[in-house]
Design brief:
The chain contains three helices and two strands; from the N terminus they run H-E-E-H-H. It has about 80 residues and is α+β, with helices and mostly antiparallel strands. A two-stranded antiparallel ribbon has the order 1-2. The chain is globular. Pfam families: HNH. It comes from Sphingorhabdus buctiana.
């Protein structure tokens, strides 16, 4: 996923940490764009890398809602 998506969070677009202390808000996590609880799978096209804090913020919203959340943020270029 990192090779495909790079080092920036899927939701906010800021750099993630790939080493160091786990459970810090900027550490990289795997996000299910369509949650498992709503029929999502572990298929690569359903997975994205994002900050732990962003992952928690997206909770178990469906993919369409997460896409709206992503579009409404000021994402770095």
């Amino acid at each position: 996923m990192r090779q495909r998506d790079g080092d920036n969070c899927w939701l906010c677009g800021n750099k993630m940490r790939f080493g160091g202390i786990p459970n810090i808000g900027k550490v990289a996590t795997v996000e299910h764009l369509q949650p498992l609880s709503k029929g999502g799978t572990w298929a690569m096209e359903n997975l994205a890398l994002c900050h732990l804090g962003c992952n928690r913020h997206m909770r178990d919203f469906d993919r369409a809602h997460k896409e709206m959340m992503r579009a409404s943020r000021c994402r770095p270029k």
